[in-house]
Design brief:
This protein is mainly alpha-helical. Helices cover about 75% and strands about 0% of the residues.
């Protein structure tokens, strides 16, 4: 053991700090996946000419919003934890800039949807743009985060979300809810399993 290695209070070497600020996304994937399945899934079941469930209009959005809010909290905590554990100032700055980029992207999405809804006389436009637009923005942010942190799983998930969310526009409502539920929720379920495996492998190395 190197004499220069820091010691923990029990006399053991302190855990080595990461130089890259790797983010554990397990909790985020679980919360976002549940938001997709419960939020978009309930919207799919309660919309259309012959809805399967008679749900109040606010419930799918509340389920989606609650899941996304929990996922955002999980993502923020994971990013802050990764910044505390890193020894690379550049990685800390990258994490800070990506955090600001999330705010910018979501604010821009709000302005686009609100502006188009006001300019175009189409009552279904918000219901088309919010689920697909949010999936598109989240997907592109995952791509940016995955590229910056060299996380192939995060990058691939973001690519899939961006493409499937925008492709869902081609089928209209309620079909787009089914596309986003199955493609997005399924992708988050798979990503959760792969992220768990990745973190276990990293803890053993």
């Amino acid at each position: 053991m190197s004499l220069a290695a820091p010691l923990a209070p029990a006399g053991r070497p302190a855990p080595e700090r990461s130089a890259t600020g790797d983010v554990a996304n397990l909790g985020t994937y679980v919360c976002f996946g549940l938001a997709y399945v419960l939020g978009h899934g309930s919207a799919a079941l309660s919309h259309g000419e012959a809805p399967v469930l008679d749900l109040p209009g606010w419930l799918p959005m509340a389920l989606l919003g609650g899941g996304l809010a929990l996922g955002t909290v999980q993502a923020t905590r994971a990013a802050l934890r990764a910044q505390r554990d890193t020894t690379d100032p550049a990685a800390v700055r990258t994490g800070q800039l990506l955090g600001v980029a999330w705010v910018t992207a979501l604010a821009a999405l709000f302005l686009v949807v609100t502006g188009l809804s006001a300019a175009v006389d189409h009552p279904d436009l918000p219901t088309l743009l919010w689920p697909t637009g949010s999936g598109f923005v989240v997907g592109l942010m995952y791509v940016a985060e995955g590229a910056a942190r060299r996380n192939l799983l995060h990058y691939t998930l973001g690519t899939w979300l961006a493409l499937t969310s925008t492709a869902a526009l081609l089928v209209g409502t309620p079909g787009l809810y089914w596309v986003i539920t199955v493609a997005g929720g399924g992708a988050y379920a798979l990503a959760t399993l792969l992220e768990r495996r990745r973190l276990l492998a990293a803890s053993r190395s």
